[in-house]
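ok so for the tutorial part 2 we go from a plain amino acid sequence to predicted structure tokens. step 1 is just haveing the sequence, like this:
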Amino acid sequence: MLAKLSSRPAVRRCTVTGAVGLALVAAGLPAVASDGTEPDLTRFYEQKVTWSKCEGDDMPEDLQCGKVTVPLDYASPKAGTLDLALARYRATGKKRGSVLLNFGGPGGAGVSELGAGGHDFMGLTNAYDVVTFDPRGVGRSSPVSCGDGAGDASAATDDSAATGDPQAVLAQLKKAAAECAKHSGPVLPHIGTVNASRDLDVMRQALGDKKLNYLGFSYGTRLGAVYAAQFPKKVGRLVLDGVDTLTEPMSEQGVAGAEGQQTALEDFVNWCTKDIACPFGQDPRDAREQVVQLVDSLDEDPVPTDFGQEFTGQDLVGAISQALYSQELWPSLERALAQLVEDGDTRGVMGFASGGAVLPTRQPAGGGLVDENDVPLDNLPAALMAINCADDPDRPSAERIIKDLGRLRAEYEQASPVFGRYRLTELLMCYGRPKGTDFIREDVRDVHSPKMLLVGTRGDPATPYRWTVETAKRLGSSAVVLDNKGEGHTGYASSKCVHGKVDDFLLYGTLPPTGSSCGPEEDDD
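step 2 — the prediction. this is what the tokens look like for a chain of 525 residues:
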């Protein structure tokens, strides 16, 4: 659930250490080291960010890059560290601090997203440095990869698996989990939103801010909600747009998600077939069948790429799913599909599938930043799966997989002949991984923080509006909901009304009254 914006996307030592320990204890999280003492995080909270011009041909001249160092394991901070990549646009007016952005995913690389779509946030530079980051395991921040593991997991849901040896299916899933561990390095066991939230607090302090001002999109709303639960007294002005669920397990999200994506695909096909350049012709029903056939043919006979890897039908499904979140991306998707269908050129669709990554790498990144050209091609899907699995305590059991795989596959494919298998693979990819945290599902509730603004869009194909309502109820009286009666994933970039109300809150602290809404009529004003 990566939001695509626009066309693209000084505290004394004893006080800091004590505050962090209290926050972790209050959140029900490990706040003691293995020897029973409180972990000393002082050196992480005393660092400052050093900024310099971002490297890369596509980076804007005025975008600056930096890093913060965080512990690999907060319970054992001496066991190793990670460097997290940051980027910022400096404040142009009187600076009141920073506002941190997370664009979603999970697995979205904030540095490249801000470089591509930073003009959406220029109004905020009147009072803030606009800052983003690549979370642990993502982008330049020790990126995870599964090598060939995703292919092994996908094979576990193909036609032969549904009728073949169940034990062979389990073996494929175990191999997939082992491949992800092999290619990701030491960061993989420590990935997830709970640790990313702790990283966020280290960033806040390193930026010199007493409170966290934050704008999170899609998955970024999960991260923001977890931060508010862990560090309620450090919450400043916090906005969640395209609100994620805090309670639904992946097993419940899968079928509904496939249905929502199928509806979005049909909307795209109806739009595409009105254009003579549509690679699937002008008949919507026939075009939908052609999409299914294209996915099937690529699964049976993948095409080579410039990067030494083959491009499969499931790779195409992942690419399409990213492109459907915003109607502004539809023309680019149409062109990319035309290049694939007519010329066998995968570069356009791979741009969606990789989330901006350039080249594959087979080596774990260690704890330092990597160059943009060394971000693994599969980092976005690999990070998405790693984070979602880490955030969900449930795992599909071997017994359930053996007993129900055929039924599950039929159920998912009935929901969507295009996205069903892809969503089922996402669920099965958690098999063989360590159990995830139950903190998000059990403890992110009744948050006693300053008021937060939650934006829900009625026609959101990725984060349904009911999740906004449910999450607001869980967060309690601190949550204020803005009802965006529009279409598309998130509202900030697509609605002038939402954009204005969010900026008013971040810049001036002005919240919309309870029951406020935005709609086409407000955007036309």
